[in-house]
Amino acid sequence: STLFPYTTLFRSLQTLIQCQGHPNVVCFRAAFRITDDQVCASDAYGKPTLALVMDYYSGGDLFTKIVSRKGLSERHAKKLTKGVLNGLTHIHKSGCVHRDVKAENVLLTGEGMPVLADFGIACRLTDGDLFQACGTPGYIAPEILEGKPCSAAVDVFAVGVMLHFAICVHTPFK
Fold first, then answer.
1. Rg (CA), the chain
2. What is the dihedral of CA 27, 153, 160, 68, to 10 degrees?
3. For residues 107 and 131, what is the distance between their CA atoms, to the nearest angstrom?
4. 20 to 30 A Cα–Cα from 22, which one of 39, 50, 57, 174?
5. 43, 61, 100, 127: which is the annotated catalytic residue?
6. What is the SS3 assignment for 62-92?
7. C-alpha–C-alpha distance, residues 112 and 90, integer Å
8. CA distance 163 to 112
């Protein structure tokens, strides 16, 4: 159905909006539709895209930082993990699950504070797609692979994988 990408997109946007108000969660400012007469990329269905306006995080992303430094010290990884867990606590208390926690989806402020981003597959715990198998290989919790419904635990599992990646520069699972 041509409505599928828009339904999914708007549900992700609603989830992002629901999770606002925490310094470790990306700050969403606005969304607007880019029309056919504007020079832009289209989505995979050839339809105009929806552009999201968010704060700029000058520290880049955590993945690039980890790889460029060939890993982080345990002390630095602990500090970043604490910030990510603080953001996830807020997301979970808001009734949502991120479902794609990984270093690539953690942005850094100029001061190095971690900020969770990319709510593309996030969902509310009241949504009907809690059984949907999704996430990034290597970070996916066992319950997702077993076809069980996701909960906040899938995000916590992914944080553990991310912490391992931050120190060892590879995920613990092949």
1. 17
2. -30
3. 28
4. 50
5. 100
6. HHHHHHHCCCCCHHHHHHHHHHHHHHHHHHH
7. 19
8. 16
Summarised one tens digit per residue, pLDDT across range 125-154 is 887 666 677 888 889 888 888 888 888 999
* pLDDT the model gives residue 2: 43
Cα(90)–Cα(12) distance, rounded to whole angstroms? 17
Query: Any catalytic annotation for residue 55?
Result: no
- Written as six digits, the tokens of 95 are 């009734």
pTM as predicted:
0.86
Spatial contact of 149 and 130, defined as CB atoms under 8 Å apart? yes
Q: For 74-115, what is each residue's pLDDT tens digit?
A: 999 999 999 999 999 999 999 999 999 999 999 999 999 999
Report whether 71 contacts 162 (CB < 8 A): no
Q: Which residues pair with residue 116 across a beta bridge? A: 25, 106
Helix residue ranges per DSSP H, 19-140: 62-68, 74-93
